[in-house]
Write a structure and sequence with these properties.
Blueprint (H helix, E strand, L loop, with lengths): L5 H10 L11 H18 L6 H14 L12 H15 L6 E8 L2 E7 L9
Antiparallel strand pairs: 1-2
């Protein structure tokens, strides 16, 4: 079964939490949206991604650019994760790949993933 590239999927998901998805976000807002998409993806397939893994990273973004939250739909990042989990379930319910790394490299979305034990994919 052929799947869409994970970098394209996570970028698509991240754009849904930005107030202005077609504007160029700050680095902090872009990274936060990707982090939350990563958390939501893995949680939606039953993988552990603790709040304590998100919180310190979001706090670092806040130190770097205190106003980055204004670029997201809400400062309530847990509700954004819930929204992203619903988005994943609606649009990619059969995709069970586990996201290992998600971030930006040279202004491009970079995602590393692995297959679940139940599913072997050829990409």
């Amino acid at each position: 079964m052929k799947h869409k590239k994970m970098s394209d999927i996570l970028k698509e998901m991240a754009l849904t939490v930005l107030k202005e998805p077609y504007a160029i976000p700050s680095s902090e807002a872009a990274h936060a949206a990707l982090l939350l998409s990563h958390a939501a993806w893995n949680r939606s397939i039953g993988q552990i991604f603790h709040d304590k893994d998100c919180q310190p990273i979001l706090q670092e973004f806040e130190k770097s650019r205190p106003g980055f939250w204004s670029e997201l739909k809400t400062k309530d990042w847990k509700s954004l994760v819930d929204d992203l989990m619903n988005y994943k379930k609606q649009h990619f319910s059969h995709d069970k790949r586990i996201v290992v790394v998600c971030g930006m490299r040279d202004h491009n979305v970079h995602v590393e993933w692995k297959e679940t034990k139940k599913e072997r994919l050829i990409d």
